Amino acid sequence: MTNKYDIRSDKDAVLPQPPIDYIIPNLITNSSLNVFYGEAGSKKTYSALSMAVAVANGKDWLGFHTRRCPVLIIDEESGEKRLARRLHETMMGMNCLASGQIYYTCLEGIKFDKQVHIADVESAILETKAKLVIIDALADVMDGDENSKRDVQPVMNALRKIADNTDSAILLIHHSNKSGGYRGSTAIKASSDLMVQVNNESDSSLIVFKTEKNRDGNHLTWSAEATWEDDAFHLVPVTTIKKNSGREEFVLDYLSENGESLVSSIIENPIGCTKQGAKKALYALSKAGKIVRTNPEEGNKGAMYKIC
Fold first, then answer.
1. In the prediction, which pLDDT does 240 show?
2. Out of 53-67, 106-120, 236-250, 276-290, which region has the weakest mean confidence (pLDDT)?
3. Which helix (H) or strand (E) covers residue 232, if one does?
4. C-alpha span between 155 and 149 (Å, rounded)
5. pLDDT digit string (tens) for 155-195?
């Protein structure tokens, strides 16, 4: 009997595997689904455009090296006039001339819960040879309810399949909720390879980027200053990229995968550190504001934490 699935064995797994193919080392890989989210006005779109210009021109982006490749922007939020102006401002701020490597569509009504649109976008990616695809924003590219897993999961699955079929990295721009977390179903985070929170106070030029999930790299925090001058948008790194310790990585990975958890559960089977080391990492991460205790009124016994 012939099986319709492509079944492999552990003999395939022990063969030499190719290295991870990064577009932005330790952050964004090929064939990946990535989410940047933040409040309205947090400059997440400008930040994504800055990344697009850096990648298209092979320039560093906020302290990260990039691999030069074409970029496709699918805009369902800004509109052609606003997007073109913002892209021009970003290119001016980065001293970049037109590269011919950034492509964009605006307000085409693309929905990733419609099969015909999925096929059309995949064709556009292959035609432009784009390896970084920026989609703005999730709520605009689906007809269903973003709070419903039943509606969200097919959209995320479609984006994942497009990324795999085209060997591209998809960067999905999304909005935060009233409490500062990402808006909508837990399927959004569960389906992503990378999730980054973008924070910017309305009266501040400082933008803080913090990874909540990173399947192929470290949890990182970095920041930049955003300014406008003479129709140019400047995004300049103001801090070095900060990596967490190995035991802090374990705790953050655990909370990313399991959500709000008891301390006893987190430290039960630590990877790469001792139980005591994992417990120290919990307190260090809490002090640094990267995780928060959710039941402080309960005393030390039964303490629970989650990622901020």
1. 66
2. 236-250
3. strand 232-237
4. 10
5. 999 999 999 999 999 999 999 998 889 999 999 999 999 99
Question: Tens digits of per-residue pLDDT, 189-221?
Answer: 999 999 999 999 877 899 999 999 999 888 889
C-alpha 64/C-alpha 222 separation (Å) is 10
Q: How far apart are CA 180 and CA 41, in angstroms?
A: 13
* DSSP string covering 19-60: PP-EEETTTEESSEEEEEEE-TTS-HHHHHHHHHHHHHHT--
Alpha helices in the chain (DSSP H): 10-13, 44-57, 80-93, 115-128, 149-166, 187-191, 246-258, 263-266, 275-287
Torsion over CA: 277, 283, 284, 285 (sign): positive
The per-residue DSSP string of 170-202 comes to EEEEEEB-TTSSB-S-THHHHH-SEEEEEE--T
**Residue 205 is encoded by which pair of tokens?**
């030029």
Encoded amino acid at 196, one letter: V
> Among 205, 237, 233, which Cα is nearest to 220's?
237
- Which residue type occupies 280? K
HSE, side-chain direction, 13 A CA sphere, residue 11: 3
Which residues, listed in sequence order, are joined to residue 29 by a DSSP beta bridge?
Answer: 22
Query: With 70 as the cut, is the pLDDT of residue 1 above it?
Result: no
Rounded CA gap, 176 and 53, in Å?
25
Distance CA 241, CA 60 (A): 13
Residues 199/207, Cβ–Cβ less than 8 Å: yes
Q: What are phi and psi of 299, to 5 degrees?
A: 80, -175
**Is residue 303 reached through a cis peptide bond, with omega within 30 degrees of 0 on the bond before it?**
no
